[in-house]
Design goal:
Number of helices: 7
Oligomer: single chain
Distance between the termini: 30 Å
Helix content: 55-70%
Number of strands: 0
Number of domains: 1
Largest sheet: none
Structural class: mainly alpha
Order of helices and strands: HHHHHHH
Strand content: under 5%
Length: 141
């Protein structure tokens, strides 16, 4: 774990992270609703898609966007992981539009499901991130 690595703003979230880095960020309680707003901006996803991905109803999601509210650790972790994934995906594909196109198409490596449907769990996000790394190294994903 990187000591004293603080994520003072959503822009500090790396395109790839280790589990200890995410754990440290969540334990330091640095992930707040500003990160949720940044996730919306970086991903270009609609509120409905983001709320489903974060396992919350749309009303709760919009409440988080409107007012600074404390987030529970599991939500902090999920937002951190998704923000990092989108940074990685944009780096690989060149834009959030191209990355979202890839996320919305059924894919053999995802049992012919859409990759976006894997955003509801941390393990799904890790799998997506691993597939992005495979693409970086020339795998046809």
């Amino acid at each position: 774990m990187r000591k004293n690595k603080l994520y003072e703003s959503p822009q500090d979230v790396p395109a790839q992270f280790s589990e200890p880095e995410m754990l440290y960020a969540v334990r330091q309680n640095k992930i707040d609703t500003a990160y949720l707003t940044s996730l919306k901006e970086v991903s270009g996803l609609k509120d409905e898609t983001l709320s489903i991905s974060l396992n919350m109803n749309i009303k709760t999601f919009r409440s988080y966007k409107m007012t600074p509210l404390p987030m529970k650790p599991h939500l902090q972790e999920h937002v951190f992981a998704m923000l990092s994934l989108y940074r990685h995906g944009i780096n690989v594909f060149g834009s959030h539009g191209k990355f979202n196109d890839w996320m919305e198409k059924p894919n053999f490596f995802f049992d012919n499901d859409k990759p976006v449907n894997f955003l509801t769990t941390i393990s799904g996000i890790k799998y997506l991130d691993n597939r992005l790394t495979a693409i970086e190294y020339g795998d046809n994903v």
